[in-house]
Amino acid sequence: MLGMLGIGCLLALASVAGAGALARHDQAEKSPLMNPAAFTVRAPDTFKANFDTSAGTFVIEVHRDWAPNGADRFYNLVKSGFYDGNRFYRVTPLMAVWGLNGDPAVAKAWLSARIADDQTHKHSNTRGMVSFFQANRRSTQTFINLADNSATLDIQIAPFGEVVSGIDVVEKLYAGYGEAKPNGNGPEMNPFYEEGNAYLEREFPKLDYIEKASIVAP
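Predicted structure:
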């Protein structure tokens, strides 16, 4: 049986754990990223974004006239730090995908923060082009085409930029997990939205990730 001292220690530990969980919850609630409606700055007509990742650095050049809504959303996601810590959760021979914030509360807050579709067929989803998933549901999930996907994607998805430096870095992002089950062994969305990066780090430790994304030129 536990003595009074032992019981006191257990209660203290429970109190500390509870306080820690509450603090994390409060921190998430206070994060500016919990309010997607606040991030609506118009992007410059052309700009570059630098991505420092666990695999190296690549640079994306954005042209707003290609896809204005996509360019504006991308600009705000980079500038706000939304992408920092994101895992490249789906990497296949066709594309490298990221755009799920590692804090599950933030990730959920952006699920319904959708942007209107841009006009398609201005530019094609060829190798190195950057776009948002998915038609009529675009929010934060972003991908780089690693092959010519124009035949299947151009009808519904408009690129807003292209990788102008470091495509070799993108091509060496860890691709061992592939698609989500049952087509591969990659992450599933439901566990991610419950645990965020904790789930990815535990179950998919080899995934590469974004250390820091930043705007480097107007």
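Summary: The CA atoms of residues 69 and 163 lie 19 Å apart.
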